[in-house]
Amino acid sequence: MNTNAKSAANLFTLVPGSTPLLINVPHAGTYVPPELREGMTALAQTVPDTDWHVHLLYQFALELGAGLMVATHSRYVVDLNRDPGDTVLYPGADNTELCPTRSFANEDLYLAGRKPDAQQIAQRKALYWAPYHQTLAATLAQIKARHGQAILLDGHSIRSQVPRFFAGQLPDLNLGTADGASCGAALQATAMRVLQSADGFSSICNGRFKGGYITRHYGRPGEGVQALQLEMAQACYMDESAPYAWEPQRAGALIALLRRLTESLLT
Predict the structure, then answer these.
(1) CATH number of the domain that 166 lies in?
(2) pLDDT above 90: percentage of residues in the chain
(3) Overall number of domains in the chain
(4) Strands 21-25, 150-158: pairing kind
(5) Which of 24, 28, 103, 192 sits CB 3.0–4.6 Å from 107 for a disulfide?
(6) Is the pTM above the cut of 0.70?
């Protein structure tokens, strides 16, 4: 087996659930195959734009019967939440690519002359992006067949201040439903009631983050699949500076809120 095949062998972990809810975490992975890593800068090799610890925040959901799918590979390998054709999510804004070449701090991720070309991007899409989405699509189809509907919660986090993408400080909890297109109005309202009721957390719906490719592509409420994205400010549960330490007290309050959110999506 060649190195690329080995790298692609374990693209995610998936724990199936017993309810209509699947929680997907596409950006918590940190693995970069050696053949890609050696062309990256020292900064890139620390994968600073990871959605650190997000999968840990949702471990409780397994007890509630939700499924949990978590990517193992870094978004620097390929961004699972971007359109395979690299169509921009937010026209007129600064967008990251399917295979990112700059960090969130606008620093180069590749050594001179080592940025992926079109052929390399196509290869990464085939090796990493496509198998992940084949499994995600199949899992949602199985859930819908079993329960008559499927609900997808796409879990993300980002530093609370990233000037490249937004001015000032991001609200703590950013619900995205593609301006209401990816889920029904009742489900969006239910989720927002929970988020707005949380003491100590600010929240917004369809603000700077309206949902990425996953939310927009899979969220088809008319066909029985509803999708929501929750982008959380990392300051809610961790130290935003390296080494990106988990903060138990802050994380505990957020986990309690996420449990209430999950329970509301299951009722």
Answers:
(1) 3.40.630.40
(2) 91
(3) 1
(4) parallel
(5) 103
(6) yes
